[in-house]
Amino acid sequence: MEAANLSVAATAVALPLGSEACSIRPSPGGVVWSTPGGAALPGREPPFSVFTVLVVTLLVLLIAATFLWNLLVLVTILRVRAFHRVPHNLVASTAVSDVLVAALVMPLSLVSELSAGRRWRLGRSLCHVWISFDVLCCTASIWNVAAIALDRYWTITRHLQYTLRTRRRASALMIALTWALSALIALAPLLFGWGEAYDARRQRCQVSQEPSYAVFSTCGAFYLPLGVVLFVYWKIYKAAKFRFGRRRRAVLPLPATVQVKEAPQEAEMVFTARRPVVAFQMSGDSWREQKEKRAAVMVGILIGVFVLCWIPFFLAELISPLCACSLPPIWKSIFLWLGYSNSFFNPLIYTAFNKNYNNAFRSLFSKQR
């Protein structure tokens, strides 16, 4: 997934962007600085603006926070025995993909952002490694979100048939399929010669721009899981609405007790006989209803953030190769890092709705003290 030069396009400072921005000639050491007249001064780095430094600082903080937060989730799942079961293995798979995004993908993307003219100076081999991990980890993160949504859907709608053994098998199968499909999409250009990621002449490193691969990769990495999560959340919403309406109808006959108030003694007998039963059913139903509502809200927020983070980038990735057009570098960078930020939001969302994680975090830090 191509990274653009965010600092250059945003501030229009005197950073060399190539022949389109100004007349420059690289020095023997590869370092140039363009003067207003177009002369290149070798051996000097162009100054960075305050805005550029601020943006770079924010991106570094985003990388560090994404890595540390997902690593904390992984350590908690490994150390707390109660988490060694589903659905925490799906959460662990998501955290692994997001940790790899923060450790292997985002730092090299930031290096590409800071390079003059968005040039890749780290060689062809490292370019292929970076692009492969980029597609692999981001695709796995996206499909893991779909797997979590499916698990919540089956838990809510089929809680009797979706037993612990069935749930364990389903989650293991979803994790295996997630990483297998992600590896296929990431390695397809290398295995089948489906386009080239590295352009030696222009010193560019980006995902293959072959139109057929663009359709295959964007559909497999985003549009297909997007359809899955939207369908799942629609079904969860319908199931929750139906069950809530059914419970309300089950409680509606209660006004019949009001109709017999003309006979005070009989009404008192009916009230004392029915009240414990009704109170018991309402408490049980409300507990399950609250649990299902929390799960539905968690899935809804997870899906909403996922869509907002990734849909701008994948729309651009699909349209650009097909129409042979290109977005301005500033928008490419914004869309790219907005997608990366989804790896930061994932652990925040699915731990914020689980009190067990909060308790585990507190106990983990208290033991370390």
Summarize the model shown.
Keywords: Cell membrane, Disulfide bond, G-protein coupled receptor, Glycoprotein, Membrane, Receptor, Transducer, Transmembrane, Transmembrane helix. It is found in: Cell membrane. The chain is mainly α.
Q: Please state the overall shape, judged from the principal axes of the Cα atoms.
A: globular
Helix content: over 70%
End-to-end gap: 42 Å
Structural class computed from helices and strand pairing: mainly alpha
Order of SSEs: HHHHHEEHHHHHH
Beta-strand percentage range: under 5%
Number of helices: 11
Oligomer type = single chain
Mean pLDDT: 76
Strand tally:
2
Largest sheet, spatial ordering of strands: 1-2
Main location: membrane
Protein name: 5-hydroxytryptamine receptor 5B
Organism: Ursus maritimus (Polar bear)
Family: Belongs to the G-protein coupled receptor 1 family.
Keywords for this structure?
369 residues; mainly alpha; two-stranded antiparallel sheet; 11 helices; globular; G-protein coupled receptor; transmembrane; glycoprotein
How would you describe this structure to a colleague?
It is built from eleven helices and two strands, in the order H-H-H-H-H-E-E-H-H-H-H-H-H. The chain is mainly α and 369 residues long. A two-stranded antiparallel sheet has the order 1-2. The longest helix is centred in the C-terminal third of the chain and has 60 residues, at 264-323. The protein is globular.
